[in-house]
Specification:
heterodimer, A: 327 residues, mainly alpha, MetI-like fold, globular, B: 300 residues
Chain lengths: 327, 300
């Protein structure tokens, strides 16, 4: 187990390292040049000033030297300054990470609570009326563009009905009580969480349904029924327990995607999360912020993958973690 | 006569899937309308690119069937133009990713060993990346910095090709895994072993014996990925990193819609509805094809 975790962590670290090289190279290819932007913003700057700035930021050196310099600093915890905020990038990203985790975590939990029972319900009679309706709803959820779903939500609940705010986190007055503060946050969370959850529910329900149908047709179900086990116990203790293993893996794997997929929802609802910060940083040539933000998103995805393996081993005793990965 | 039998069986099974049939009809109409867009514009006497600032947000009328947008352009005609782009990008992207995925999958599955390990690590690695933000960076790249001449890098067709390439990057991994799994089981079958015993080269076996046998699964996967890729293109275009205005795409038609929700909610409804219907139609079509071509599959 310890060796397995160590091997996986080493693999994740290697992926992160590779990612940092790739992203560093890509970011350098984005339009605009930080020094050009500075020169354009100040008519008093001369080309000599620009050259001095280039030397100061090391922009006159070749790409691999710049990467090594950046990586050396990054390892010491110096991740650079954000150009558009004028503050260290971690200071910008840290609170946003919490906001994204709150948004993605809530949507994840709601999607699971809705999707698992729905999938089981549909699996009870495959091809039946309930299954047909659930399937239709799932296809609709999977096929709706998330940004359009967000637009419809805003049109309906914020513009037409005026029930909920269209975006932002809401300002919490300092003297507000704990419950008032929670209410303000909840009202601002409602639409983005609903949007993010709706898209996931379709995927999760289909996984749950497929896994449950597969489990229900196994021989052990016939054995259980033949032994006289009640139908409820057969379904819950036998079928559900077996269907859960593959579903848990898919769920854990999808969390990383949910984390970076929240980018669209955050942008639509002006929710100050990491995804929105990355997107804005890309648009505004904020190289450092985009780079570190992308690495954090990668880290989240890798952690999700690790959790997927652990979850699999936890619910399925046939999976052993002592053997190395790929063995 | 006998050769047509399996296809009749497939057609009959497909015909039982009513949603798939309806989807096929819908997509057929959509493709026909998109292809005929220039003639329709001529016949209706509207120019989809002509702006008319005196007629912004016009209500639907005999002249403008769905009204006009924020620049006074005919919305119906813009939707058809957008459909051309979205469908073309989806189709080209799906074909490209299927070809790449099939080649990688068949080589990995047939050759096995070290090459298989490397290719599958690459595939798993791709799946483990935060794809959306990464592809946004990729879409934002300034190709002039890579030495592409400015007149090419800024041309309309070049941006179309890069978008196709980018959406194809998201699609090939699933196809590669699918084809690899099929190859592993096919290469142990008697016909493949017979071909090997007769001295056929690996390339010949992969090309003539393995790949044709994955055609059914490949068709299903390509159809299913069409929907996903159209969704992805619309997202990139919506974010301003895909198809660039004034070229219309369903995604970029929605870019400004959020600020106009109060004045013209219709502008936010129609392009999104078309994306939604097209994507769901491709998904139903894929589902129907799966039932028809691969009846053993567990999904139903």
């Amino acid at each position: 187990m310890g060796r397995w975790v160590a091997a996986r962590a080493a693999g994740a670290l290697a992926t992160l390292l590779l990612m940092s090289v790739v992203v560093f190279g890509l970011i350098g290819l984005m339009p605009g040049d930080p020094v050009d932007l500075m020169v354009a913003g100040d008519p008093n700057m001369t080309s000599a000033d620009a050259a001095r700035l280039r030397a100061l930021y090391g922009l006159d050196r070749p790409l691999h030297e710049r990467y090594l310099a950046w990586a050396g600093k990054a390892l010491q915890g110096e991740l650079g300054f954000s150009r558009s905020f004028g503050r260290p990038v971690l200071e910008i990203l840290w609170p946003r990470l919490g906001n994204t985790l709150l948004l993605a975590g809530l949507a994840f939990a709601i999607a699971i609570v809705v999707a698992l029972p729905l999938g089981m319900l549909a699996a009870r009679r495959p091809g039946g009326r309930v299954d047909y309706l659930v399937n239709l709803a799932c296809f609709a959820g999977v096929s709706a563009p998330p940004f359009w779903l967000a637009l419809l939500m805003i049109t309906l609940f914020a513009v037409a009905l005026g029930w909920l705010p269209a975006g932002g986190m809401g300002d919490v007055p300092t003297q507000a009580s704990w419950s008032d503060a929670a209410l303000i946050r909840a009202r601002h969370l409602a639409l983005p969480v609903a949007t993010l959850a709706l898209v996931q529910i379709g995927h999760y329900t289909r996984f749950m349904r497929a896994a449950m149908i597969e489990a229900l047709r196994q021989d052990f179900m016939r054995t259980a029924r033949a032994k006289g086990v009640s139908e409820a116990r057969a379904v819950w203790d036998h079928a559900f327990a077996n269907a859960l293993a593959p579903v848990l893996t898919v769920l854990a794997l999808s969390f990383g995607g949910l984390f970076s997929g929240a980018l669209i929802t955050e942008t639509m609802f002006a929710w100050p999360g990491t995804g929105k910060a990355i997107y804005q940083a890309i648009l505004e040539n904020d190289f450092n912020l985009a780079l570190v933000g992308l690495l954090i998103a990668t880290l989240a995805t890798l952690l999700g993958n690790l959790l997927a393996d652990l979850a699999q081993a936890w619910v399925d005793p046939r999976v052993s973690l002592t053997a190395g990965p790929g063995a | 006569m006998t050769a047509s039998r399996p296809w009749r069986l497939v057609a009959a099974r497909f015909g039982r899937h009513r949603l798939a049939l309806a989807s096929l009809g819908f997509l057929g109409v959509l493709v026909a309308l998109s292809l005929a867009a220039p003639w329709i514009a001529e016949w209706r006497g509207v120019d989809p690119t002509a702006t008319d600032l005196l007629r912004r947000f016009a209500a639907p009328s005999a002249e403008h069937w769905l009204g006009t947008d924020d620049l006074g352009r005919d919305l119906f005609q813009r939707l058809l133009e957008g459909g051309r782009v979205s469908l073309a990008v989806g189709l080209a992207g799906a074909l490209l990713s299927s070809i790449a995925g099939a080649l990688i999958g068949v080589v990995a599955g047939y050759r096995g060993g070290r090459l298989d390990e490397i290719l599958m690590r690459l595939t798993d690695g791709m799946i483990a990346l935060p794809l959306l933000p990464l592809l946004i960076v990729l879409a934002a790249i300034d190709w002039r910095k890579l030495g592409v001449p400015a007149e090419i890098a800024q041309s309309e067709s070049f941006s179309l090709y890069t978008i196709v390439g980018i959406v194809a990057l998201t699609g090939w991994t699933q196809v590669a895994r699918l084809v690899r799994a099929e190859t592993l089981s096919l290469k142990a079958r008697d016909f493949a072993r017979a071909a090997r015993a007769l001295g056929a080269t690996p390339t010949h076996i992969m090309w003539r014996h393995i790949l044709p046998n994955t055609a059914g699964a490949l068709t299903v996967a390509t159809t299913m990925s069409m929907g996903g890729l159209i969704l992805f293109e619309s997202t990139l275009s919506f974010l301003g990193l895909g198809i660039q205005p004034p070229s219309a795409s369903w995604g970029n038609m929605l870019t400004g819609a959020q600020d106009l929700l109060h004045q013209a909610p219709g502008l936010a409804v129609w392009p999104g509805l078309l994306i939604f219907l097209t994507v769901i139609a491709f998904n139903f079509l894929g589902d129907g094809l799966q039932d028809a071509l691969d009846p053993r599959s567990e999904r139903r």
